[in-house]
Amino acid sequence: MEIKIQSSAIKNSVMFTKSEICPYLRLCKYCNSIQKKRCCLHHSVSNNDMIMCYNLECVNSHDCIDAIENILKPIQIPSIKDIISNNFTVKKPLLDLKTNFIPRIDLFSSKKRNEQIKIIERNNIPILAISLQNLLSSKKDQILKNNFNKDIHDIIDFNGKILLVTNISDHFCEKLLSNIDQYISALKILKPDIITTFDANFYLTQPIFITKYQLNQILIANNRIKDLNIYQIGLVPPVQVKYFEIILDRMLNNNYKVIGIPFLEINRDKKRKLKQNYIDILNKFKQKYDFKFILISTNPDKKIMSDCYISQSWVKIKNSRNLNLQEKIKLWDVRIKKNLKDSNESNKIKSIYQWM
After folding, report:
1. Residue 47, class by beta-carbon neighbours within 10 Å (0-12 exposed, 13-18 middle, 19+ buried)?
2. Average pLDDT over residues 281-285
3. 211 vs 94, more confident
């Protein structure tokens, strides 16, 4: 992403001396030498949402700069009331899951892809996942790459259901949110059986005003695709706990019956506190709503007890250059069987836990 910044923003930035290093430095992976009094973690965001930041390494720095330069005005930042007012009913919510583990596959090598599909079919898995990221064009005025401009079933030759996962890189998130009509046209060409809803740039350490703005954007975008004749999973992004509850409640009230949560960022929390907070919230909501939840980009975990997992790690082999394709196939088969076993055990534990 190209970041353009006016010189006044640079002039206003104040650097720390060595003795004044921000005490919150370790909490924000983007923070390096930013004025302490303007840090979103130093101030109480409940009292001041419009926090200044001058760190150009942050993927959302352009939003901060727009706020500083008064391009993004305070009146444009939605309140919680604005966010929950995005009330609509999705036409085709995915109602249930036929498996506890959904494997994601490679797309770029047809030979590897075909072998992975054979393994999925041999293990009687009725659905596979592919990442929308692999299909998107980097060209400004084009959504799909030329070789993916047709029915996805014809491209990968799979007899089961195909889930298109929209947990994609930040610049592609912004591209889709800015080109919703073109994205809808692309979906009608691809004809996936199931999609996850819109994603955006979310980081646990970003200023709250960005989180609120992005949450509102994805709900507005989801409203635009609510009538598509494609089953939909409501994607709930990894945001601060308070806002996780708000967006989860909104999605469930908008009729989504299966919720997907991208866990790549959350898995970096080695102490597992955030992960457990999310799971506790999901289980609490299950007492009020009838829904399933999928953890995206994570392996089955018997301690977490999710309804389902989506992962590509079963085909990711470290130091695999010395392995031939047949050796990789054997490893893939072992790994997918382990993921199926672990996910089934997790589901059994979950059932017992809920019964108790």
Report:
1. exposed
2. 92
3. 94
